[in-house]
Amino acid sequence: MATRLKEVDAVMVGMGWTGSIMARELTKAGLTVIGLERGPDLTPGEHFALPNIRDELKYTFRKELVQDPALETITFRHHRSEEALPMRRMGSFLPGNSVGGAANHWGGLHWRYLPSDHLCRSHIVERYGAKVIPEDMTIQDWAMSYDELEPYYDKFDRLCGVSGKAGNLRGRKIEGGNIFEGPRQNEYPNPPLKMTESALMFEKAARELGYHPFPQPISNASRAYTNIEGLTLGACQYCGHCDKAGCEANAKAGPQVCLLPLLRAEPRFTLRPRAWVSRLLYDKAARKVSGVVFTDTRTGEEYEQPAGLVVLSAYVFGNISLLFHSGIGEPYDPISGTGVVGRNYCYQLSRMGVTMFFENKEFNPFMGAPGSAMALDDIDGDNFDHSGLGFLGGARFACGHADGRPIGYRPVPPGTPRWGAEWKKATAKWYHHAASIAVSGSNYANRNHYLDLDPTYKDQLGRPLLRLTYNFVENDYKVMEYTVGVAAKIARAMNPTIMGPPRIRRGDYDIVPYQSTHNTGGTVMGTDPKTSVVNRYLQCWNADNLFIMGASTFPQQPAYNPTGPVGALAYWSAEAIVTKYLKSPGPLVHA
Amino acid sequence: MANDHTSEDNNPIARRNFLLGAGTAVAAGLSSPAAAAAQQRGQAQAAPQPANDETFLTLTATEVAFFSAAADTMIPADELSPSGTACGVVTFIDRQLAGAWGTGAKMYRSGPFRKGKPEQGYQLPLTPREFFAAGILATNAWSRQTRGKDFDRLAPQERESALKELEAGKAALGDFNGRQFFAALLQITMEGFFADPIYGGNRNKAAWRMVGYPGLPAVYSNLIEEYRNKRYYAEPQSIADFS
């Protein structure tokens, strides 16, 4: 029998970016809030400290900050005719495992989605006509425009201290920034990071070819920065460990540095780590949730936490599985195309690009951060004319050095053996002289890609695992072929001594190697409850006091990394709760 | 001398004695003089050698012999670095397999266990410790069948050809996947060579010296512009140097 705890105004399920933002905004509005986090708490001063934070084996290969699949994983298959098998080790994507979530080990790339990404389907229909959209491509518009979300993008930028250069200030295009981005009301809070030699070479070659390179925007402060909460971030040290480890300089934005110091001191807020929420208490007839049930992972004891509001702020998979385990919303059925929970799962096309070897260049590949790179958006989204190309979407490019960690980073020219004397020679010869253009592509929704519950495998609490059915489709292969072709053109213009073969993904999606922690969809937003789980305020259509955060609300995935809009949407939803919902509890949008 | 090829295969003490001198002995006895000389040069410039009485946490003598032979074939001694074993790769592997990772931490280990597509990832019920034990048994059996000896007793060129067959998936290990075993063997060997020396490998930061990786503290905000397109040289430093 679960022990019933004292009711709170709001409960957060997961204490990463969105749980922290929402907890901060709701406590500011006077609510009592409890933040439940399955994993342990961390203290940056102790856990992200020199010298042990510079440990490639521990953080990259033993995945210190990553979710333990023994607790909960997913099963995976390419097609619904196949049997799904469990992902027994984390690989393709790396959700977090502690207070602060995946933001403890994120790389910090901080993007806004294009205005045309917010209107994905209607923009394409208007420009090219509905017939260019394949019959099985289930893309749809976001439930709010870029312009509506801009103030919240801006607020999240200033929480994080993003470093970059605007390319569109209130409609004025600025060379040197990303001229394709939507209008910003403010310049970036911090100037771009210092660029590597490789980034400058890429910039020059790309500009000469007529493209519009710009500094890759990054949530690593390029200088000491005090954020909108009055908390101070340190300056980036270009250590080359960002993307798998915590930041000892407090330069990388995350809840631990940008919000949690205030929440920890807030009397209306309680942080409860090692609290694993197993289901929500749902009254289907009343269309309300009344709290959550969780297990204390130290003791196995079960508790019931009553709450006026429930915020799902776990990783994408956690949000979706909790809806299934609580019986909220109609599960998606790929045969009839009906139902919504688990629908429109998307990912990101990655591990693509081209590696170049320059005999006479010195790159010191260990010096850098993901922001000491130049990016390119000319063939991203709908920034280029797709007429006659036979695909939709695109990719963004980046070139720089951000990780010379040698267990993983050992570039050698094509044809080199993987071990032995020849391998040693080539590794020693080229370690300082290789650079790469990385290409990340969009991934548009398909009616055959979805999540449901697995019939066989269970998690540590005995609940069925989430089952992923996903593969690349024709549109993806065409995006990869076209965009990597452009990357190869720029690479040739950089005039390398040796050019590696363009890395174009062929064959089926492989869940083993790391690709990106940018899974999206499954609880998507929209204007129609038949094709969405949440409305434009991220309020669940099936329970008006349930709000669902994060990238699980994205209807499809552009080429960008999702954290920028994830933070913006949390602020947007929090404001709707405080200014609208609390005054008049009930559905904020009438279906 | 330890070049006693007639010692009992199953005598762990003889096996260990063999192992300790195996590198030079086999090279000198069965390989070209040039290879032997190169190996000796490598050992001469090696970082401190493992003590002759090195005690392993989990590996058996046969397993130590196997991993040593594999490490020295994948990472032969030359002017760039001492051999894999001299760099502590086997010590690293022993500690990894004895610890949490080796015994199955951060793995989903519930059944049923079914053979999947490669894109579905690892599906065996074995922990890494058990997987390597099974892989060594299967590889040695195959080596005896095709070459008459356990893998570690082969001459250097034979070890190389055996590893190439494993790598290419051409080794018939029965129902054990040789290519998958090779990939895991290569990965843990490279981890041992390149990881921070606190884990027992990369002795004297030999692998970091080989590529020119400076290690710690990795605080470059005042250096990144100064060393743009200019080689940055620094004596490598590891976690222990700052502890």
List keywords for this structure.
heterodimer; A: 591 residues; alpha/beta; eight-stranded mixed sheet; six-stranded antiparallel sheet; 13 helices; 24 strands; 20% strand; B: 243 residues; mainly alpha; 8 helices; 45% helix; 0% strand; globular; disordered N terminus
Structural commentary:
The complex is a heterodimer of chains A (591) and B (243). By secondary structure, chain A is α/β, with parallel strands linked by helices. Chain A has 13 helices and 24 strands. In chain A, α1 (17-28) runs parallel beside α13 (563-581) and α6 (146-160) packs across α13 (563-581). The longest helix of chain A has 20 residues, at 474-493. The mean pLDDT of chain A is 98. Chain B is 45% helix and 0% strand. The radius of gyration of chain B is 19 Å and the shape is globular. Residues 1-51 of chain B have low confidence and may be disordered.
Q: What is the distance, rounded to the nearest whole angstrom, between the alpha carbons of the first and last residues of chain B?
A: 41 Å
Taking the sheet with the most strands of chain B, its summary is:
none
- SSE string of chain B, helices as H and strands as E: HHHHHHHH
Overall, the morphology of chain A is: globular
Main sheet overview of chain A: 8 strands, mixed
Compute the gyration radius of chain B: what is it? 19 Å
Q: Tell me the number of helical segments of chain A per DSSP (H or I, 4 or more residues long).
A: 13
The best one-word shape of chain B is globular
Q: Which spans of chain A of ≥5 residues are poorly predicted at pLDDT below 50?
A: none
Taking pLDDT < 50 over at least 5 consecutive residues as the criterion, the unreliable ranges of chain B are 1-51
Would you count the extended β strands of chain A for me? 24
Q: Briefly note the structural class of the backbone of chain B.
A: mainly alpha
Instruction: Give the number of DSSP strands of chain B.
Output: 0
Strand content of chain A: 15-25%
